[in-house]
Amino acid sequence: MSDRITLQVNGEPHTCDSKMLLPKLLEQLGLNPRLIAVEYNGEILHRQFWTETEIKNDDRLEIVTIVGGG
Fold it and tell me: Where does the signal sequence lie (predicted)?
């Protein structure tokens, strides 16, 4: 069994370590968790569940950056 998995991040393939939690993946992607929203396998994932969400092979993430304006 491999210790690397492949998932889709915004439609692009991405490889990471298995058993990685979502906040660690977001950190590796260089994203500020306070400024993004995450769709996990087709469902908006509430921030309170991020720390318990383990990334699995073939997961699909859509990550949207929140931009303020005036």
Answer: none
State pLDDT tens for residues 10-49: 999 999 999 999 999 999 999 999 999 999 999 999 999 9
| Structural tokens at position 47 | 């921030």
- H or E stretch including 47? none
Right CATH for 4-59 from 2.30.40.10, 3.10.20.30, 3.50.50.60, 3.40.50.2300: 3.10.20.30
Structure tokens at 68: 């303020």
